[in-house]
Each structure stands twice: as structure tokens, then as C-alpha cells.
């Protein structure tokens, strides 16, 4: 597969992504697949944020639909509100791999906690090819900086309100996400979540 990759223009992100995903599926390498998925997911976020003048006052479902459409255009078999013990906002099912993402408008830590609970206790099972997931927050209609809001959520979660011995990693330099891990209540194995903040505020002075 590495030789196949070398035949393509590696500067072309889309071609490289498809080939790396194929290699991950062949090798059944879930970590490699998710690593590439997060690269592509961040690209979708950057595209979305370029449309904040259109999305700063829109609802959760419409914004999520834009993300899902972008991921599908990149070759990911994702659905919006696909069923997995309930209606998952972003449902990636690329056998044998799965990934679920729960999306919320920024309305405070308790509201975000509700999305965290849905992801961890309703949708995910924490199996060997599905132990990653995401909490995605649409940061809009507020004067609070996105990094401030994300940091407050990380502090809230680090205090372990669910009493699940959760561990939160540092926020990477100039990024708006952090990773957490805790023991999944069904599988008993670590469940890893990336918490994304998508900045959609729009308050131009001119």
C-alpha cells in the first residue's frame, strides 16, 4: 500500500486521505483511520468557520448537515441522525470502524454535559473498533472567546462531575480541542473523546 501511495500526488490531500484510509481498513488499524479522520474533520471545521457570517445564528441540525455533507464529499460514509441506540448527530460507519459525534450549540457546561452523556451512555459501546468519539460545540451568539469557553468546559470536566475518573489532556497549541479518556461503562475499556469547539461568532465592526 505504501508503494500505491507513492504513485499518487502526495500533495493532493484528498487522494492521500483516501489511500491512507484504505490502508488502515486493510490492516484493521483503527488508530491510523481515526488519526486521518481527525485531519479531515479539522479541514471541514476550517471550511465551516469561513461561513460564520451565514451560520452564526443557525440551528444545530443545519450546521451539522454542512459538516456531514463535507465529510461525505471526502468519501466518508457518514449520516446525520443515523440510528445507533438513538439518533446520533454524526454517525460514521466504515466497517469495521465506527465513530460517533454529538453536536451541541454553546449554551453552557450543563448543556454540553448532556451531549457528553448521550455519547457515552446511549450511542457508543466502546468496542475494539469504536472506542473513539467526539463532542462538537458550535460557539455562536456570545461575546466570550472560544478558547475561554473551551477551557471552562475542560475545567468543568476535569472536576469529574460524572464520577468516572475522567482524564483530560492539555489543549494543543493554537488548537480549539482537547482529548479526554475514561472507562466506558459498557465495555470497561478506555473510551477516548475529542472535544471540538467550532467558532461561529460573527460581530464585525465594519
Keywords for this structure?
seven-stranded mixed sheet; 206 residues; globular
Secondary structure elements and their pairing?
Elements: H1 2-6, H2 13-27, H3 30-49, H4 52-55, H5 60-73, E1 78-79, E2 82-83, E3 87-88, E4 90-94, E5 97-105, H6 109-123, E6 132-139, H7 146-158, E7 167-168, E8 177-183, E9 190-199
Parallel strand pairs: 5-6, 6-9
Antiparallel strand pairs: 1-4, 2-3, 4-5, 7-8, 8-9
Helix pairs in contact: 2-3, 3-5
Mean pLDDT: 92
Q: Structural class, judged by helices and strands?
A: alpha+beta
Order of helices and strands: HHHHHEEEEEHEHEEE
Q: What's the count of strands? A: 9
Based on Cα principal axes, name the global outline: globular
Radius of gyration in whole Å, from Cα?
17 Å
Measured as a percent range, the helix fraction is 40-55%
Tell me the span between the first and last alpha carbons: 51 Å
